[in-house]
Amino acid sequence: MPDATLLQKLEELSARVAKLEAENTRLENENRLLRQKLDQYIRHHFGGQRNEGLDKQQLELLLQGLPNVIAFPVPESQTTAVTRRGAEHPVRRMLAEDRLETYETVIEPEEVQAHPEGWKKISEERTSQLDWVAPKIINRVLIRPRYVKAERFAIAPLPPQPIEQGMVGPGLLAQIVVSKYEWHQPLYRLQKMFDEQFGVNLSRKTMGCWVKQAAELLKPVYRAIREDLLQGNYLQADETPIRYLDSDVKGKSRQGYLWTYSRPRGDVLFEWRISRSREGPEEFLKAFRGKLQTDGYAAYESLAKERSDLTLVGCWAHARRGFHAALAETKLAAWFIYQIGLLYDVERELREQKAGPALRQAMRVWQAQPVLKRLRRAMELIRRKTLPQGLLGQAIDYTLKRWEALTRFVDDGRLEIDNNLIENAIRPSALGKKNWLFVGHPEAGERSAVLYTLLGSCRRHGINPFDYLKDLFTRLPAAKITQIREFTPAVWTKARAKPAAQAG
């Protein structure tokens, strides 16, 4: 009997040990995952490499030994079809002679100046240097003579002004808007600069009123851009947070968002919302029919599930970031990064060839499709052997969950492989937040959306924003409603390209 009791106690102890060992293993895994997330957070916010790309040497080091882990040999014809060209480092042209105003100063030798007779010029030495000639604020006076004849008076009407009864001309108004929204200079800095450099005292309040009225003047152009985008059948979308002051609680700020919509090589549109809820894209996309390319934000995905006329297209840049983060957990992630890099090699080659939609589709089917099949087989295999909570498991789940959306770019040559174009359009506003921290009022967010739209579109088309806005502030006040579309950056650029082509 004692032997039976002893055996029972041994079994109970063994069960408790097994239970403790299982709990210990669970806690170790949980602790490891938490440490990985903490390391990832520290690297992202306090230093380290934020770019998800890896150079060739890093990949070669990480990929050592991986072919034995993933039994998917890469056919030679598939990996060598597109090769990355060697990086070229062209000599940077510091002087753009075709764009800069040139001043020439002739320096004669002292002996020639003293006795010029008998000297014959045989050649010359030319030394170029960049210099700065400070801009200036001028006082433009519009004089309208008044005449009288046989009890009749005559005076020319004042041309339409960008701000009715305002003392600001198109050039200065354009400079203030560009300085604030393109170069991210707060108005108090502009006030100080105008006072110290030019002796002109313009208060922040005055300039703020001018900016507000400038945005109102530009709203019809903003609406025309919105209509043009919604009439197409392909859009890219993203959003970025911006703090704004709560008008109901003094000194308190809240989180607002600039939602951004565009299509490649088209204008960019920003829309201000005080939340990140689905209501924003749902209202904006109400009249849109076609393909919408986004990251994995749930608001877009739930909207697409309810609408048969809205098709989501995925972003490979977002998918790649998950595998880049997983490098902290396992070098196995480097294999996936390398394969995704092969997809981008195809896109790079297509850009260099300036391929159209038909060629892009054909090349993707031929060269990108095999890489995608290999990627999916590897993910399905590795997912069974990887913890779902791990960084690699999360990256694989994110990608497989959106696989259909991520592979749609192959069969449609109009689509991009990622959402980077729209993220590039957002980036300048993120830089501005570091200077002005928040917008002063929800209505100021709407004005910012209008002005960021026009300046972001200028950037997309390679337009000098000052030249564009000065022209709009000059001509728009007298324009008819039927002419508004001519002032969108896309149309404005084409109109100026025609005379240049004809002159050439």
Give a written overview of the molecule:
There is one protein chain. With 504 residues, the chain is an alpha/beta fold. The chain has a domain of 253 residues. Helices cover 53% and strands 9% of the residues. Strands 3, 4, 5, 6, 7 and 8 form a six-stranded mixed beta sheet that branches. A two-stranded antiparallel ribbon has the order 1-2. The protein is elongated. The relative contact order is 0.12.
Q: Care to give the gist of this entry?
A:
This protein has 18 helices and 8 strands. It is an alpha/beta fold and 504 residues long. It has a domain at 57-66 and 159-315 and 419-504.
Q: What keywords describe this structure?
A:
alpha/beta, two-stranded antiparallel sheet, 8 strands, six-stranded mixed sheet, 504 residues
What is the strand and helix layout of this fold?
Layout: H1 2-46, H2 56-62, H3 76-79, H4 110-114, E1 146-149, E2 152-155, H5 170-181, H6 187-198, H7 204-231, E3 234-245, E4 253-262, E5 268-273, H8 279-284, E6 290-293, H9 298-306, E7 310-313, H10 316-326, H11 333-353, H12 357-383, H13 391-401, H14 403-406, H15 420-436, E8 438-439, H16 442-461, H17 465-475, H18 489-503
Helix pairs in contact: 5-17, 7-16, 10-11, 10-13, 11-12, 12-13, 15-16
